[in-house]
Amino acid sequence: MGIFDEMAKYGHEQLHFFQHRGTKLKAIVAIHNTVMGPALGGCRMRPYETEEDALFDVLRLSRGMTYKCGVADVDNGGGKSVLIGDPNADKTPEMFRAFGRYVEGLGGRFYTGTDMGTTPQDFVHSQRESTRFVGLPLEYGGSGNTAIPTALGVFQGIRATARELWGHEDLAGKTFAIQGVGKVGALVVEHLVHAGARVYITDVYQPFLDTLVDTTPKANMLGVVAPTEIYGLDVDMFIPCALGAILNDETIPQLMCKAIVGSANNQLLDMEKHGAQLHDLGILYAPDYLVNAGGLIQVADEMKGYVPERVLAKTNSIYQMLLQIYKLSKEQNIPTWLAADRLVEARIETIKDFKSVRI
Ligand code: NAD
């Protein structure tokens, strides 16, 4: 693999490889774009089969973070880190301290926190060596559970989508199919039920389903369905809060919903192909990196000194931003994901321009 070619393809600024043999740390940090501010993105730990797989993942994910930061209007750019190893077998406190020292050595160009395979507790070790870790537990000065603002952002996305579809945000009696009722999905269900909506739910973990069935008023609970049945339900909106790549050749033909608004990352298997298919079918797709940005907004806020009211205000603004994207999509007759990308690219260009002013 030509590393510089790969960086040029995705538009990256910088790539770092770290190795510490004593702690078996093998890490890659990719910094995609710092026009808007220091790069920010989670740290993923996976037993990647090859170094190329790890590199591909970190390049793609860090680019995605630039768009997510841009659309959420936080003062950060895109970055990401990956640790090569098995999160269930290879973690040690010393590995995370070593990682902390390397990240600190980047001099504030990159901030990181949890992602798949890592937990806030892992970075309690890292923060002993570095001030560049966010999403820490409350008792370590962090902002706590990011699922709370993430679910609120998804709910604001649902309200904006309702306005776009029906001209109002009244969700009473409207129907929703929620895929995945883990940390975010369960809270989205709470918001929906509070608004008088009716829900179908699915998950692969039975205890989460049982809890929700027990705690949701019967009038609002339409039922639990098998994971494969969730796509074909005749509902107003489909709410994916589990896995990525679930909008694909197999699932899109099954959809009966009017809109898709969920927290899962990278829902479109192929952005161009499947984004265009949804557009042609007239199914409104709320770009995932906008509606799931609440968690990012919260951890970015930690860097400024966490103010809950500021996080709430910014997360609520996902509503307006999504309406703007729907407007752009209609005016230009382009899929919503492309409208979102264009909006972010224009924003980055403007910021780049005024940042050229010497102060
Ligand atoms: P989670 O692990 O708590 O919940 C995911 C749920 O999906 C689990 O209950 C799991 O059993 C279920 N699931 C897995 N495979 C499934 C399948 N095939 N069908 C149905 N359910 C299935 O994760 P979370 O924190 O709630 O995040 C949900 C999604 O939102 C993830 O894609 C995550 O990347 C994304 N996201 C989360 C945050 C956050 O702040 N937590 C922020 C941005 C994006």
The top-level CATH class of the largest domain is: Alpha Beta
Helix- and strand-based class?
alpha/beta
- Enumerate the distinct ligands: nicotinamide-adenine-dinucleotide
**Count of helical regions:** 13
| CATH architecture term of the largest domain | 3-Layer(aba) Sandwich
Q: What pattern of helices and strands is seen along the backbone?
A: HEEEEHEHEHHEHEHEEEHEHHHHH
Describe, in plain words, how this protein is organized in 3D.
This protein is α/β, with parallel strands linked by helices. The chain is built from 13 helices and twelve strands. The protein folds into two domains: 119 residues, Rossmann fold (3-Layer(aba) Sandwich), CATH 3.40.50.10860; 174 residues, NAD(P)-binding Rossmann-like Domain (Rossmann fold), CATH 3.40.50. 44% of the residues lie in helices and 15% in strands. The longest helix has 22 residues. The model has no long low-confidence stretch (mean pLDDT 96). The structure holds nicotinamide-adenine-dinucleotide (NAD). Nicotinamide-adenine-dinucleotide binds next to helix 5 and helix 6.
Core attributes:
single chain; 359 residues; alpha/beta; Rossmann fold; 2 domains; six-stranded mixed beta sheet; six-stranded parallel beta sheet; globular; binds nicotinamide-adenine-dinucleotide; oxidoreductase activity, acting on the CH-NH2 group of donors, NAD or NADP as acceptor; nucleotide-binding
